[in-house]
Design a protein that fits this description.
heterodimer, A: alpha/beta, SH3 type barrels, Elongation Factor Tu (Ef-tu), domain 3, six-stranded antiparallel barrel, five-stranded parallel sheet, globular, B: alpha/beta, seven-stranded mixed sheet, three-stranded antiparallel sheet
Chain lengths: ~375, ~400
């Protein structure tokens, strides 16, 4: 048990963060529960494709009430902090821009970087808590030998959320607590039960929190319509890797690298009669490049807007394992700087569907070396 | 932990006399005021007694009082009940959401609605009201005192304009009740809303004053209660409580309670501002109700300040609360053209007649501490302080 201190707990109303609050409370810390109000789930309700009911969504009233009930149960002060403007500016708008320029964004990472471990941590410190605890599955510890805070994969590798945390600075890591890092999800539910939390069996949230129904295309339509903006015309040609025009598409935001369905090419076979996939999206000339499965394989990737965690900077080639999307088995690669803020990873084995807009996170075993955004 | 409450514009605790007065009507004196038998008669008697007390409070006839569930229902009953499709309604951009959002709904239901601006002190210009009147203007709705700044609106002048032009006038007096003497004749209003829980009665009871011969359509359909203006069994205990609270408030005007409250508010404002730099008060050049002050502390996030103060034991408010309990930027300060940064750095302190000298001392002590702590962690403040310290 650690020395009692004042800790802010980021409470989403889910099992994980609720259990964190119960655990720290049992350890005798002084807690303040905080929930970020990030998005009004009713905002786009009623527009085409947007469901009326938002039950069980992050930031839904139900979740706020769940978090409030947990705080009540634990008898800790609890507040909802309104960060809707910042969330829209720093997460939702980049999300929309990325899709409209042919990339596939990761909003959860932006939310961690700009909201949870920035705004919320600021608020926590202002109200007297020097550290913030969250329900993320990850581990962090200070390594005196390197003089750095290290981010590590959790015990429950199935729930690993380090992919979304690569952007944390040393300052942010030093002020973060991930009490679930050594637990497996079933144990967390058992702990929740043991602590008398009524939501111990509440289902995990899966989709992007501000997209009720999970259909990002309908979200883009509804969001732009609400702002009185026209969906920009990004329609164009479907071309093969050799430049042959094989069809037309209705807008680049409908595609993501590796996609096979919805190409509108009927049964047009690839070169070898195999199915066609999206190989790349060229925002500038609005072309979607298609090809056979083997053409999806990339020997390298480039990433920029880098953040280093385990090392102060990359000063020579480094052997790492690279994760190119949340559900991706990290692949061995050699990492080298290829610009002032750009690194290139050369894979041992070419990787399928390297997707611009996604994060590339570099691991050394369990440690997160750092990461960047795939260009 | 010591807890001090300075959020009376949100709600007030019941006074012991009020609680005592209503208590018997839950159990031993229960009854449906519409029933023929003795239980009903006794309930009816209590309701009518309360109606007289409220009428005396407003200087109107008892028959002009309609009991409702609170300020929001009263405002909606006034706005929807007194207008029909094709009518024009004039209101302001600083009303309570019960009027603003009802006004937006009216606009969606075939009425034309004008939201008038205010000046930097949160005051509506009666001449703007006059200029906004159209041939089809049916109703003017302007609040008596603003809930966030305390600014008292020129309702008597607006009432005179309404009378001159033959337009009905509604005023939301929820924040004025018990802080200003209410006289519906002097105000010249046809409709006036009051909420019980802002004047030490419980939540869930309010009234709408409806001037004799003013026609309103009910919001609900059911029994013939409240002269067919508000169907539904009377909230007996709540009505009794409101009657008692109105009686106490009426006597409060003669006992100097308001002067005492104003003195406390002025000291709170003066001493906090003397201890905190880059801070000030909103609406100081407007007449204000005695209990309210809205202070800004530049380079501070108001939401964090409200939380910090609550953790220290002082309950105040910033902005208005949305469904989740988070604060939303104040539409009132925005309408006053307060810059967004300063609006977010603003806090409302609202006192009640239960606020003591010691409560004010406590606030004067903890507010400057909390502001200093927040500024210490604010990058904006550090930059501005550094800039200020560079010699010219």
């Amino acid at each position: 048990m650690s020395t009692p201190e004042t800790i802010a707990v980021a409470m989403s109303g889910g099992v994980d963060s609720s259990t964190v609050a119960a655990m720290l409370n049992a350890e005798g810390h002084t807690l303040v529960g905080l929930t970020l109000q990030l998005w009004n789930q009713r905002r786009l309700a009623g527009r085409p494709g947007m469901p009326e009911s938002t039950e069980g969504r992050c930031c839904s009233l139900d979740d706020v009430y769940d978090a409030r009930r947990v705080a009540e149960h634990l008898d800790i002060p609890y507040y909802v902090v309104n960060q809707q403007d910042r969330f829209e500016q720093d997460v939702v708008q980049p999300f929309v821009r990325e899709y409209l320029s042919g990339r596939t964004p990761v909003p959860c990472t932006l939310c961690n970087n700009h909201l949870k471990f920035a705004q919320l941590l600021d608020t926590a410190r202002q109200i007297g808590a020097e550290r913030i605890a969250t329900g993320h599955y990850a581990r962090n510890e200070y390594d005196p030998a390197r003089g750095r805070w290290i981010l590590k994969r959790p015990a429950d590798t199935n729930k690993d959320q380090t992919y979304f945390l690569f952007g944390l600075t040393q300052e942010q890591l030093s002020r973060s607590l991930f009490p679930l890092g050594n637990y497996h999800k079933p144990d967390v539910r058992a702990l929740a039960q043991q602590q008398g939390l009524a939501l111990a069996n509440k289902p995990d949230s899966q989709e992007i929190c501000f997209i009720p129904g999970g259909d990002y295309k309908q979200f883009l339509d509804a969001y732009l319509a609400e702002r009185g903006e026209e969906m920009p015309d990004t329609s164009g040609e479907l071309v093969t890797t050799s430049g042959e025009v094989v069809g037309h598409h209705q807008g680049i935001h409908n595609y993501t690298v590796g996609q096979r369905k919805g190409l509108g090419l009927g049964n047009t076979p690839g070169a070898a009669g195999s199915p066609l996939y999206v190989i790349g999206i060229n925002g500038a000339d609005r072309r979607v490049v298609v090809g056979g499965g083997e053409e999806l394989l990339a020997p390298t990737l480039r990433a920029n807007r880098l953040n280093w965690i385990a090392i102060p900077a990359l000063d020579g080639p480094l052997r790492v394992q690279v994760k190119i999307r949340h559900r991706h088995a990290p692949a061995w690669a050699t990492l080298e700087m290829s610009g002032s803020d750009e690194a290139t990873a050369t894979f041992n084995e070419p990787q399928r569907a390297v997707t611009p807009g996604q994060a590339a996170v570099f691991y050394n075993g369990d440690e997160v070396v750092g990461g960047g955004w795939i260009v | 932990m010591r807890r001090v409450y300075m959020d009376a514009n949100a709600t007030t605790p019941m006074l012991p006399e009020v609680f005592e007065a209503m208590q018997p009507y839950f159990m031993e004196r229960f009854g449906n005021a519409s029933s023929v038998h003795s239980f009903g008669q006794r309930a009816r008697g209590a309701v009518e007694q309360a109606r007289m007390s409220v009428a005396a409070f407003l200087h109107c006839r008892p028959a002009e009082i309609v009991f409702t569930s609170g300020g929001t229902e009263s405002d909606n009953l006034a706005l929807f009940g007194a207008t029909k499709a094709g009518d024009h309604v004039i209101t302001t951009s600083i009303e309570h959401h019960a009027v603003i959002h009802a006004g937006e709904r009216l606009a969606a239901c075939g009425r034309e609605v004008t939201f008038l601006p205010v000046d930097g002190n949160c005051l509506v210009d009666p001449e703007d009201v006059r200029r906004a009147i159209r041939p089809n203007t049916r109703l003017i709705s302007v609040m008596m005192a603003n809930n966030e700044t305390g600014a008292i609106q020129p309702v008597e002048e607006i009432g005179a304009i309404a009378a001159e032009r033959g337009v009905q006038f509604h005023t939301d007096a929820v924040q004025a009740a018990s802080k200003l003497k209410l006289d519906v004749e002097k105000i010249g209003c046809h409709l006036l809303s009051i909420s019980g829980h802002k004047i030490h009665a419980p939540q869930g009871i309010g009234i709408l004053f409806v001037r004799k011969d003013t026609r309103i359509e009910p919001l609900f359909y059911g029994g013939t209660h409240e002269r067919q203006r508000r169907a539904g069994t009377e909230n007996l205990a709540g009505i009794v409580a409101l009657g008692k609270a109105a009686e106490i408030a009426r006597h409060g005007f003669d006992t100097g309670a308001l002067d005492k409250m104003a003195a406390l508010r002025d000291r709170l404002e003066r001493e906090i501002l003397a201890r905190v730099e880059e801070a000030g008060a909103h609406s100081t050049h407007a007449p204000r109700v005695a209990n309210t002050t809205n202070l800004w502390f530049d380079h501070v996030e108001g939401e964090a300040l409200v939380i910090s103060l609550d953790l220290k034991g002082l309950a105040v408010s910033g902005g208005s609360a949305c469904a989740s309990g988070a604060s939303e930027p104040s539409h009132v300060l925005t309408a006053m053209h307060v810059p967004a940064e300063r609006a977010r750095a603003s806090l409302r302190f609202s006192l009640s007649k239960l606020t003591t000298d010691e409560d004010v001392d406590f606030a004067i002590e903890v507010v400057p501490q909390a502001v200093a702590k927040l500024r210490e962690l604010s990058p904006y403040y550090r930059d501005s302080a550094r800039a200020a310290s560079i010699p010219a």
